[in-house]
Design a protein that fits this description.
The protein is α+β, with helices and mostly antiparallel strands and 228 residues long. It is built from seven helices and twelve strands.
């Protein structure tokens, strides 16, 4: 279930680049954003659906994933506040190449995609910022492809734990995804993800306390990720 509310960008707690660019260009009144609240597990966008809006994540965490065969999905990225959804439309794609689902309650801002394109093509600084965001997203996906093809199970889990630590900017963090989703992030089964986590815990590489994970030997994890 989702709740729609009309929002004023000036009172929004998260001032995004879309707002600042529109204000700089004197077309702030054209924004007409809509805020949507998604409950945990609800789809924010669906793979192959038409892209009609630029979506900015304001609150909560979400997962970007693609549908795999036999219900084996692959998580490409974990999204945090200020992340964009739907950038591919700027580069010619009219449909989503992935799904995005809420990991907890998420608040998003939806702006008409045609206005985003106008800002992109008419403001050089905004163009550079979106290109940079898109480049980072592509780089993450390329790293995922390398991991899928070249790394063994322990290396994949180590890479995922390091990715999450970098994402949350801490070596101790609360795991906002399930063990099954950790497996999907690592492109392995849930059983293998749990087994490797247990191995890492028994070897003193990580600490596990409920949903909290501590990377006790991050340098060793980096070696396992690189050579595992």
């Amino acid at each position: 279930m989702r709740y729609l509310t009309k929002e004023n960008c000036q009172t929004c707690k998260l001032k995004c680049d879309i707002y600042f660019t529109a204000r700089e260009m004197g077309i702030e009144a054209e924004l007409a954003p809509e805020h949507v609240v998604y409950k945990k597990h609800e789809l924010i966008c669906r793979q192959n659906a038409e892209i009609t809006h630029a979506i900015i994540l304001i609150e909560g965490n979400a997962k970007m994933y693609i549908d795999g065969m036999n219900n084996k999905n692959i998580i490409l990225n974990i999204l945090l506040p200020s992340n964009y959804i739907g950038l591919l439309s700027i580069y010619g794609s009219t449909t989503y190449a992935y799904n995005v689902a809420a990991l907890n309650e998420c608040r998003t801002c939806h702006v008409d995609i045609n206005l985003l394109k106008k800002l992109y093509y008419e403001n050089h600084n905004f163009l550079l910022k979106l290109n940079n965001a898109f480049g980072n997203s592509v780089n993450n996906i390329m790293q995922k492809l390398i991991s899928l093809n070249q790394k063994q199970i322990r290396g994949k889990v180590a890479e995922s734990l390091l990715y999450l630590a970098q994402l949350y900017d801490a070596n101790t963090f609360e795991l906002t995804i399930t063990r099954k989703e950790l497996g999907e992030l690592s492109a392995i089964s849930e059983e293998n993800a749990v087994r490797v986590l247990t191995e890492f815990k028994n070897e003193g590489i990580v600490g596990l306390e409920g949903k909290e994970i501590s990377l006790k030997m991050p340098d060793l994890l980096k070696k396992i990720s690189a050579f595992g």
